[in-house]
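Notes from hallway chat w/ T.B., transcribed later so I don't forget. T.B. wanted the structure written out for a chain they're using in a teaching module, and asked if we could keep both sequence and structure tokens in one place. Agreed to drop them here.
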Amino acid sequence: MGEQPIFSTRAHVFQIDPSTKKNWVPTSKHAVTVSYFFDSTRNVYRIISLDGSKAIINSTITPNMTFTKTSQKFGQWADSRANTVYGLGFSSEGHLVKFADKFAEFKEAARLAKEKSQEKMELTSTPSQESAPGDLLSPLTPESINGTVEERVTPQMPQHAEARAEPSQNTLPFSHSSSSINKHWEAELEALKGNNAKLTAALLESTANVKQWKQQLAAYQEEAERLHKRVTELECVSSQTTVIKSQKTELNQTIEELELALKAKEEELETLKAEVESAHEFQSQKDVLTQKLQESETRNQTLEAQLSDLEQRLESSQLEREAFRKSLRSLLELLDSKIFELTELRDTLAKLIEGRFLWPSSAAGFLWTRRTADAPCDRLLLPTPTCQTSSGPHAYAHTELQQVVVQSIMDQRKINWQLFLLKLRCFLAFLSTSL
């Protein structure tokens, strides 16, 4: 076998489940190196893969093997000598295609090597067949032994006949010669039967020995195959030392990278935990703010309702104020008219005070005449009615009576006027406070 692999690649190794013949059983926990080797001692190609010091693939490529691609990254082949089916899972389709091409190439090389070895064996076996005697090629059986006895007896009969022919020529009696010949052949036949029995026993013993030898040969072949596999494994281990060292270096680098990645993931996990805690705090704050917002929205709705109520009340109050203003204007107009009337009445009374009354001379009523102009304006006095026909004390009494009556009437009107002004002032004060 070569010291260095012809072709190497990395793949995940599987074997068919021997019990179900359907499921795949992984033989390696991770991707391992799968290599092609050439065994120069046996002139064969092998596929070998090691997982540490254990050989998980040791398959000899034969011309009747076929590598089948079952998917884009998986291929398989059956090994009748190992009585199993191997499966390889590659990292990419390119690795699978390269492995399949190498398999087909080495399969064709194995076929050519087998044809050459068969030609060599035919050339070496032909002279030995020509030099070997024919009796050694025929099997040793009781029938063949009996056949050889008959063949031996048959050609000797003419010789004895010729030997016995001479006494017949010497005029010996024929009956005496035939009886002696029969006795001779009977004795020789008995000797041949004894030899045949001995040879049969020896044949049976050799047959039993052959069976035992076959069993021993099979055991020796199994032991030789096991030792050969062990030697192959040891040779693979010795030839792949550098590969294992490089794989170990790669694994150490991978472990360091994974440790760094693990540290980074742990830091990221701590950061995520802090973010989760802050998110919980934010969530609690959000809940509080949401509750406050709901309360403020409720208060806002209440205030909006109150505002709408106040707006309605304001609008109604504005309407009432407008109506009140209208009524006030009408009242002021009425008041102006009343004041104007009162002013006219006062002017009229003043004019009446400045004049004097005269009693009517007939039933038509009193006759008002003007008095002297120096009468006080603040004292409301009726003009003195005088009868043109009366004179003396009676006329003076009538005058005094008229003055008393007129004065009482004027006092009553003055009181009513003062009460009206007082009520008007109170109303205006209330109006000013309400506005």
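Follow-up for T.B.: Confidence is low (pLDDT under 50) at residues 126-176, 356-390. Might be a good example for the class.
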